[in-house]
Every structure is written in structure tokens, then in C-alpha cells.
Automatic annotation (TrEMBL):
Phylogenetic lineage: Bacteria, Bacillati, Bacillota, Bacilli, Bacillales
Listed name of the protein: DUF4004 domain-containing protein
Entries under InterPro entries matching the protein: DUF4004
Source organism (scientific name): Cohnella abietis
Amino acid sequence: MDRELISKKELLDEKGISYGQLYRWKRKQLIPEEWFIRKSTFTGQETFFPKDLMLARIDKIMNLKEDLSLDELAGKLSPLLPDYEMRKSELYERNIVSKVIFQRFAEQDPDTIVYNFERILYFYVIDKLLQAGEMGMEEGDQLLQTMRDHFPKFEGKPCDLVFIRKMGVSSFALLSVPAEIYYESGVKQIARISITECIEQLKGKLV
């Protein structure tokens, strides 16, 4: 399933921003380079964006730019993982991740163990899908292994998590953003989550 796109002209009209603002934000890395997609149209080459990601990003920039400098915003919106750690017991107390996550996926870890941001992110993504009722516990094991095996390969570049099922068999994939994806017949996409968005949400809770 392909992600819906919005043209640059439609975006500027809908959000009421100028061409100069858009590219200033791009230079400040508030908008990932990968979201600027050049495509051929009947009028020539035109720039498009992943619609849901771009509209959410513009809203966030507009809401925060009065309180934060562009450099501060860039740090907040960066897909790079912050150098941040938190004890398991504090994650409990602050309800960052449900207790059921630790009972299932980190039962052997003592309360004093300190997790880095990346490990907390894995728990956060699993918790998000479990709480949405879209995934079972055993599938959570699969997801944790997928994140461990493949997320570090993106090295701070934006990526999406895709969760699919076919004939009751589930599977997970991580893919670069933007990316077009098409499935064979019978495959149902259960969820597609922006890991970049998850990182931003988690930063807001932790930092």
C-alpha cells in the first residue's frame, strides 16, 4: 500500500506557508530531505510529500516556533536518538510504558537496570500496538526481535514500521521513508507506524 502524497502547491495552499518558509525549514533540517519527492507530472517535474507526515510536521512547527528557536526545534524533531537513559523503576512510576510490557519482555531485568533511549523506544512501539488492540503478545516478541535486528541499520534516518498478516501469519518490516510498498494478494496491512513520530512522542515524555 502506497502512502498518500500531497503536492508542494497543495501543501503551501492548505497550510498557508510560503515557499521561502518551507525551504528555510528544510535547510534547518526541520523537515527530512527524504520527504521531498520529485515526480514526473504532465506539466514536468513536481515536488510531493508524504501527506500525513508532512501535515503533522508543519502543524508541529507552527505550534512550537513561537516558543522555540529553529535550532531548538531541529533538535526536538530530529530522528536521531538522544543520549538519554532511564531506570526501569522510573519508567514504571512515570507510566511511560505499561507494566505489562516489562512483565512480558523484561521480567528478568532488575528494577535498577538503566535502559538507553533505543531500548525504551522498542518497548514504547510494542506498547503502542498492544494498547491499540492490533497485536498479540507473541507478535510482540517478533516485533522486539525485528527492532533489535534492523532498527540500528537506519542510523538515524527516518523509517516506518509495517505490520502485516496473511492467513493468520503475521510479519513485521522496517522501511525507509518515503517508500512505496505493494503486497501480494491476501496480505492485510494491520498497521503502519512512523518510528520518527514515535521518537518525537517519546522525547516529549522523557526529556
